[in-house]
# Entry
Amino acid sequence: DKRAMPSRTPPKRRPLRTPPRLGTNKVADMELAYTIGLTATASGSIACSPATGSIAYPAGCMVVVYNILHDRQQYFSTKGVQKAISCVAFPTGRSTVTGYVAAGETGHQPAVLVWDTRTSQVCATLKGHKYGIMSVAFSANGKHIISAGIEHDGQICIWEWKSGLQLMRQKLSDPVRALACSNNGATFATVGPRGHFTFWSFGGDPSGGSLPAEARPADLGAELRGGDFAAVAFSARKAAGDPAP
# Structure
């Protein structure tokens, strides 16, 4: 006798779920709560504010300003296409210009950016370098910003940052790792590998649209000649003549 085979009903398929779109409110409403870590690569990647004691450092494409006393972070970034931040700077202690932080970008056609820390708004975008910025610094009076490009860029620039005017751009034969401004406002220094240690003296009238700077190599002596310098700073005490770094 042939036995009847039971019929098998195919299992029902569950409907596929539609994946959420990236443009939904759940993504748009996300806010940065805290950053852990930093992307500092050189001495110019960290700066301390003489006015508040806060510390600035890069974290990817944004600048973090950390208030140590209140354990609070502020975040500064640009809109649109963002580039990684390589260096940061605050106005010096002698400057009457306060409440700002500057940063230099990496990559092609980078900019020196200045934010107002009270409003978190970008108040200056300075473009003149080609391949990345290694170090930035405010002048003693806070009116100018000095920026040094990476080795492939090889340029040093002086800006009147509030007006966006570029006062000087000069090609260098030696790479720059760091720069610093003196407290007397008349000198800044650049350092780098292969014994690069140079003092720059401001000259000329900036009202004419230019601010040339005269370069003078530092007297390093036989022991330091040819050394590899990664950072530079001027002492806070004002001495006679050019202050020694």
